Every structure is written in C-alpha cells, then in structure tokens.
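Q&A log
Question type: sequence-to-structure
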Amino acid sequence: MTPKIKSIYIAASLAGVLMAGMTGCTCVDEPVTAGTVALDVSLPGDDGSRGLIENLPVKVSVSSATAGIVFSSKEDTQFPLQLTLLGGEYTATATVGDSVPASFETRYFKGNETFTVSASAPAQVTVVCKIQNTAVAVEYDPEVDDVLHNYSLTVGHSAGELTLTGRDPRRGYFMMPAGERDLTWTLAGTTDTGAEFVKTGVIRDVQPATLYTVGISFAGTINPAGGLPIEIEVDTRAEEITVDNVINDAPVIGGIGFDLNEVVVLNSGDDFSDLVVGIASTSALASLSVSSDCFVPAGLPAPSIDFVTASADDAALWLKKGIRAAVKEPTSAINFSRFFQTLLPEGTSTITIRAVDTAGMASTATLTVTVNP
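Response status: OK
Response body:
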C-alpha cells in the first residue's frame, strides 16, 4: 500500500504547485494523511475463534466513493489483517462460502461495514456476514405413513433442485436465479395399491435468510376397500433464519449399508448382518437415545437408553445384549448386532432413534424390523 499512498501524495503536491503558479498566490499543501485499519470477518455467533468459517472461502474488498476498490483479498489472505489507507470513508464488503444454486451443505454469507480511516486513531472493523440463502425443510404428520409410501419431496428452481427422501431432517439451501422469486415442489410416492401419487405446488415470493417448512398431512379418511383419492394437505410456514439455526443443522440419521426408510426383513435361517445406523452432526451430541417396546421382552434392562449420559456399567449391560454406540463428532454410530436381532420376537418391531446436539437441534428416525418364522 505504501507506493500507492506516496504517488497520490506527490500528485496532490504537484497540483498545488501548478495552481499556485496559475493564480500568482502563495499556497501551502495540505498533506495527505494515512491511517491503519485492523480488518476481520465473522459469522453471527462467532466467538472469535474463527471456528465457524474455518475451511470456508472468504473474500473481502475495500472501496471508497472517490477511489473505487482499493483492496481485494486473495485466496491465501489471512484474517484478521492490517491495512494502511489514505484518510477517508471506506466500505468493506465480505463474503463467506460459495453461492451455488442448490445444496444441502453449501451456504453463502455476505456483509458490509462502513468505517473511517484517520492518522489519529487506528480503526478496528469486523464485517459480520449474514446468510443469503433461502432454506427449505419438510415435516410429515405420522398419519401420512398410513396412506403414502416411498415418498419424497423435490424442491427447486430453474438452476437446480434438491430431493428430500422420506423423513429427511436436512435443510436444502437455495440461491435464487436473477428474476426468479418462486420455488416449485413436487411430492411423490406410492399408495397402498401401488399406484403412483404426485402433487405439485409453489412457494411464492421466497426471501433470503428465510426457512420455509413444508408441512404435509393426511386430510382424508382411509377407505379399507380403496378407490377413494388420497387427500394430502400441504402447508408452508416461513421463519427468519437465526444465528442458532443457520450455523447448526439438525443431526442426520441414516442406515449404513441399508435404507433406514425401508423395513428390514429377517427370515429364519438367514445369515444376519449387523445393522449399523450412522448419525452425522455439525455439533457435538448432547443426547443419543434408542427406545422400543421390544427391548424388555428381548432381555434388555430397560425400554430405552441414552448413550451419551449412560454410565459405563449401563452401556456394558446393553452391549451384552448386542447393542452398542460410538458417540463422537462429526459422525456417531449405533450397532444392532446379529445376536440382538436373534432376540427379537416374531412380527414387526420398531426402534426409535433420537439425536440432539449441543445447539438444541434434534432429529428422530425409526428402524423397523420384521421377523418371519
């Protein structure tokens, strides 16, 4: 920055000399002063450790009304940094993350801050970048499972779309193309008769930094004889994305090597494999529990256990019956061993898995197992 300051100072001095010659008066140049600014970038809720933006691309530019852009960061620029600038008013603009049309993981943050540089007092500026995405999540009422199976919700715009399969707890993040304000959605599944079910709709005039939750419920009555159309109601609610729910997504629960949304069928004489359920979380888990009415009849000491808070002795009792958990960030796992599966009674058993992280974000999933004689 020093060469630029020097050249401007010389230009200003030369202009003063020329003006003095033209007017015949004696003029004294006003020196062009410079000052420093300590510049940093953060996200809402950042405690200064930079943990929230670690490994994310950060771009910063500094501009003034008179000189335009006077600084642009590079890929290897380290923050916080110190700049030396001519005295005056400036605006720092920063972005964190990547702007992509649709993603479950990639988010985009942007912010700006105006500041003054003077020789008398160094400036300290932190640009807080706020989320720019529009987010979409889906919630299903339990009754939907009575009439609709293998369902999914696809949401998108002209530049990209995302599919939430089953009771996927994740959020989809969208950057809207220029001139577009609506997101379209398609709910698809199959009925009890195997018929295809499709319903479409639009979330209109979506806004950035807003989460839209698509609530899906069964609005009709089940006709055992069939033949009546399924009535599905869709209600969309909007809420501002806050500090808590932008940085932390709810844990994601899924089967490893099998589809947790499908019934696991065990036939007598089969060579069983361990059933492993994985839990991915953006924060440490405060609770990881399993519960089922089948546990006590199968010889387990209780109908439920929280593997995060359970004592070592309690965890050992469950291990003897073939259920164990490894709790760690960012991926935890629960193993239902082959031995445990042999303890299950004939018929269908359901096991509820619930994960809650330290940010208060929670997810629930169900493992359904049918044992045939």
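Response note: Confidence is low (pLDDT under 50) at residues 1-28, 224-228.
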